[in-house]
Amino acid sequence: MGQVQALGELNLDSAAVRALIAERWQSHPTCSGGQAQDAESCLALIRDEPLVTPQAVAEDGRMQLVFSSFGG
After folding, report:
1. Which residues, at least 6 apart from 51, have a Cβ–Cβ distance to it below 8 Å?
2. What distance in Å separates the CA atoms of residue 21 and residue 47, rounded to the nearest whole number?
3. Which domain holds residue 18?
4. What is the pLDDT of residue 65?
5. Is residue 25 in some structural domain?
């Protein structure tokens, strides 16, 4: 479900996203073990990595609401 995108296709410029990348880059398998020197070099290594965002899943036409207790 959801359209596969490359990480580099997403907006990675917000302060919140940059903080998350800075916090987590060293634990990424592609960047660990000295393969990347910092968050920016890690990001350069993983830009083409495929992923499916929660938004892409929610927008997928195959998604159907089964139950909701929200609202009336």
Report:
1. 4, 5, 6, 7
2. 12
3. 5-59
4. 87
5. yes
Its pTM stands at: 0.74
Give the per-residue pLDDT at 71: 78
- The Cα 66–Cα 55 span in angstroms is 18
Residues of the chain with pLDDT under 50: none
55, part of any domain: yes
Residue with tokens 């073990």: 33
The string of DSSP codes covering 23-67 is HHGGGSTTTTTTT-SSHHHHHHHHTT-EE--HHHHHH-TT-----
Report the distance separating Cα 48 and Cα 58, nearest Å.
22
CA-nearest of 14, 13, 10, 4 to 51 is 4
